[in-house]
Amino acid sequence: MSEATTVSGPLNGIRILDLTHVWAGPLATRLLSDLGAEVVKVERDLGRGPSVATIEPIAGWIGGEPGAEPWNNNAAFVKLARNAKSLSLDLKHAQGRALFLRLVAVADVVIENFSARAMPSMDLGYSVLQAHNPALIYVTMPGYGASGPYKDWVAFGPTVEPMTGLTQVLGYSAAEPRNSAIALMDPIAGTTAATGLLEALRKRQETGLGGCVELSLHECGVSFNGPWLIDQQLGATAEPVGNEHPEMAPHGLYACLSRGKEDDADWIAIACQSDAAWRGLVQLIGTELDADWDIVQRRTATRRIDAAISAWTQALDKDAAAAQLQQAGVAAGPVASAPDMLSEAQAQARGFFASYERHNTPIPGNPIQMQGLSQEQWTPCPPLGAHSQSVLMDWLGLAKHETAALLADGIIAERPSV
Question: In what order do the strands lie in the sheet with 251-256?
């Protein structure tokens, strides 16, 4: 294990070779780097994604424009690669592959989220890596797992999601199934991978041996399935209910006083979680509705109740409405846009968003707060290949002239070659 990394934390000394891409895998390694692990992203020399210089990335560019080095300005990548080191290494070259295996021999973890066939096709499957380092923990997270009839299927969050059962209860009717369209399976799988790795590290402390941690986006999503799955197994019918809730009424989103945006109202989410909350709501909004209605009666009068709530919320700013509802014992919260989230009092007070990247761009922090962790030690996403030579010198003891020769031969890189 290496010396303590720049970021202090419980994972200091853990070396991770990170081959992940897109969202699920990079989120896992960002969580681990926040906890002090030394994460080395092993990248291709072509840049952070195919044609990144000419195609607008999903999350846009840091600073709003691609700039002189677009491969370093992909906002989604920048967001997920803080605290990491970047080693641009050609794994398809024999010498590059040999260097990677030497790194494996002194690493604690290799993590990737390729398809199930990718690493074996390069003769870098778990059995090969294990032979070079019996204490290695290998984390693999293909879309449908490493076995089964779907193992070679291409997987993305929005295509995996409908197979988890979640789509069954999204939307406003069974005739109009919805997809969340936010690749929800990716962050679920990313946090699951981080958890699995921590368990494997603890097990290694007991046995001295590494192991393989395998998970799939698909099964991670199914494991987060809600109570509707159990309901259906017990004979009930699970159907989309829009913004309503099977055990709360009223429950939904209500328009508030606009803050001047053209043709766009602000909104508040309200969940009346109990009879006591219902009484508090009725007293607050001053309606003629019956404060003694139980949930069955409230469901029957849904349209009337929604109209009364809407009449009240439309005269109020969403933050003021939420504050009054909470004071009355009703669960409520303002619906936040991205700018709202950055400026809201709660986020400001807790210092959750950290602005240390180029262009002073606020990046979400780590939701884990514990003694010994500090955002002040974080480092920005590194430029592509920024540590190609230093990692080889630090981990493998190579001399400067040796890494310079590797750079000259194109085995490693410090910027895209095309």
Answer: 251-256, 266-271, 331-334
Task: Give me the residue spans of the domains in the chain.
Answer: 15-223+355-413, 251-335
pTM score of the predicted model = 0.90
Percent of the chain with pLDDT over 70: 94
CATH 3.40.50.10540 fits 15-223+355-413, yes or no: yes
For 251-335, CATH number? 3.30.1540.10
pLDDT tens-digit profile of 198-227? Answer: 999 999 999 999 999 999 999 999 988 878
**How long a stretch of residues is the chain?**
418
For the four alpha carbons of 53, 58, 61 and 62, in that order, the dihedral sign comes to negative
Tokens of 194: 């981080």
Query: 87: phi > 0 → left, psi -120 to 50 → alpha, else beta; which?
Result: beta
Q: Single out the residue of 19, 22, 27 nearest to residue 44, CA to CA.
A: 19
Q: Which one-letter amino acid corresponds to residue 330?
A: V
Three-class DSSP labels, the chain: CCCCCCCCCCCCCCEEEECCCCCHHHHHHHHHHHCCCEEEEEECCCCCCCCCCCCCCCCCEHHHCCCCCHHHCEHHHHHHCCCCEEEEECCCCHHHHHHHHHHHHHCCEEEECCCCCHHHHCCCCHHHHHHHCCCCEEEECCCCCCCCCCCCCCCCHHHHHHHHCHHHHCCCCCCCCCCCCCCCHHHHHHHHHHHHHHHHHHHHHHHCCCEEEECCHHHHHHHCCCHHHHHHHCCCCCCCCCCCECCECCEEEEEECCCCCCCCCEEEEEECCCHHHHHHHHHHHCCCCCCCCCHHHHHHCHHHHHHHHHHHHCCCCHHHHHHHHHHCCCEEEECCCHHHHHHCHHHHHHCCEEECCHHHCEEECCCCCCCCCCHHHCCCCCCCCCCHHHHHHHHHCCCHHHHHHHHHCCCEECCCCC
